[in-house]
């Protein structure tokens, strides 16, 4: 406890870090306030609550703004969709690949294209949201005036959320876009745990649920931070070869950290976005076919065996697919060769690429199984009697996003603390230099 208090004191003793935390809290407060401002011309009492599926997941990410028909009803999700599209184009289209290699100028152009695509996606998603989610009885003004005005407001709200995310990244702490998603998820946690307490009461069952949640979170933290270290040896280099005395700098040993969960949460997002298709397609023939009715019934229930088996299988496939398109062993082997580095006992070039691919194939399988298990844990929790609102925190996309964002934020805070300690040691003169060269 004393160490925790000391760490807090150290955090708030650094002026820059204290200012960044303050800016982050202010920007997050603005985001949460906007999620409660309802679109002009909408009667909040006539709105219906989204129960599950993609709408329920979107509402969870947006902290309830989706079902409240707020000005931030779409939040940052169109920007996320645009970023995923640009990322996939960067892996397949040579034009975007060239921009990625152009350094800062290329990143600026990609960011500009992403912003424009965000507006286009917002207009498409906004029209679908207004016409399919907001009932006519909730609109209290002329509908011919409401829809154009609401489209402009929703688009402006998404652009403002995108600006908030960029400002958090620039002036705050952590990744701004991820912070906005995380705060939307966490905002529903107090309500969910209060509802669970009202349902279960202060009983052994509630204690068991909280203990199980704790160990699940710890497991996700461990697996999310797990890496496979590939050892790398840098070749020795001659320094001062033109003088009378030459020195040979000893080669350094390092490693390539290959994340076990390299795909992160993307396979779950891809699989979740496709899981509504079977019930949607089967609904066309539901009146004519028993099979179609069975598919529609089972794939509309996220606790059914068919739904979870299909969901887990798709996650396994998407994990291998996304890892394959995001990590290029050939490029990694080429970069090592260009920097005079090599993997011990492995020849540079093609053999190094094959060795890295061999490792990736073996660490991707446990990663895929882990993602599949985490994704279906909320269904098991719900079947065991946990309320639907509270069971969402037992796994799935929300838990992985929260753990990832919190870990990244803590790493940034730790880097500030290490820098502060380094500056203190430099001023006190406690650091001694050490040469790592051999005379030849």
Automatic annotation (TrEMBL):
<keyword id="KW-0811">Translocation</keyword>
<feature type="transmembrane region" description="Helical">
    <location>
        <begin position="262"/>
        <end position="285"/>
    </location>
</feature>
<dbReference type="InterPro" id="IPR023201">
    <property type="entry name" value="SecY_dom_sf"/>
</dbReference>
<feature type="transmembrane region" description="Helical">
    <location>
        <begin position="116"/>
        <end position="134"/>
    </location>
</feature>
<dbReference type="Pfam" id="PF00344">
    <property type="entry name" value="SecY"/>
</dbReference>
<dbReference type="GO" id="GO:0043952">
    <property type="term" value="P:protein transport by the Sec complex"/>
</dbReference>
<feature type="transmembrane region" description="Helical">
    <location>
        <begin position="393"/>
        <end position="410"/>
    </location>
</feature>
<keyword id="KW-0812">Transmembrane</keyword>
<feature type="transmembrane region" description="Helical">
    <location>
        <begin position="21"/>
        <end position="39"/>
    </location>
</feature>
<feature type="transmembrane region" description="Helical">
    <location>
        <begin position="201"/>
        <end position="227"/>
    </location>
</feature>
<keyword id="KW-0472">Membrane</keyword>
<feature type="transmembrane region" description="Helical">
    <location>
        <begin position="177"/>
        <end position="195"/>
    </location>
</feature>
<feature type="transmembrane region" description="Helical">
    <location>
        <begin position="146"/>
        <end position="165"/>
    </location>
</feature>
<feature type="transmembrane region" description="Helical">
    <location>
        <begin position="368"/>
        <end position="387"/>
    </location>
</feature>
<dbReference type="GO" id="GO:0005886">
    <property type="term" value="C:plasma membrane"/>
</dbReference>
<keyword id="KW-0653">Protein transport</keyword>
<feature type="transmembrane region" description="Helical">
    <location>
        <begin position="71"/>
        <end position="96"/>
    </location>
</feature>
<feature type="transmembrane region" description="Helical">
    <location>
        <begin position="305"/>
        <end position="327"/>
    </location>
</feature>
<protein>
    <recommendedName>
        <fullName>Protein translocase subunit SecY</fullName>
    </recommendedName>
</protein>
<dbReference type="InterPro" id="IPR026593">
    <property type="entry name" value="SecY"/>
</dbReference>
<comment type="subunit">
    <text>Component of the Sec protein translocase complex. Heterotrimer consisting of SecY, SecE and SecG subunits. The heterotrimers can form oligomers, although 1 heterotrimer is thought to be able to translocate proteins. Interacts with the ribosome. Interacts with SecDF, and other proteins may be involved. Interacts with SecA.</text>
</comment>
<dbReference type="InterPro" id="IPR030659">
    <property type="entry name" value="SecY_CS"/>
</dbReference>
<keyword id="KW-1133">Transmembrane helix</keyword>
<dbReference type="GO" id="GO:0065002">
    <property type="term" value="P:intracellular protein transmembrane transport"/>
</dbReference>
<comment type="similarity">
    <text>Belongs to the SecY/SEC61-alpha family.</text>
</comment>
<comment type="function">
    <text>The central subunit of the protein translocation channel SecYEG. Consists of two halves formed by TMs 1-5 and 6-10. These two domains form a lateral gate at the front which open onto the bilayer between TMs 2 and 7, and are clamped together by SecE at the back. The channel is closed by both a pore ring composed of hydrophobic SecY resides and a short helix (helix 2A) on the extracellular side of the membrane which forms a plug. The plug probably moves laterally to allow the channel to open. The ring and the pore may move independently.</text>
</comment>
<dbReference type="GO" id="GO:0006605">
    <property type="term" value="P:protein targeting"/>
</dbReference>
<keyword id="KW-1003">Cell membrane</keyword>
<dbReference type="InterPro" id="IPR002208">
    <property type="entry name" value="SecY/SEC61-alpha"/>
</dbReference>
<keyword id="KW-0813">Transport</keyword>
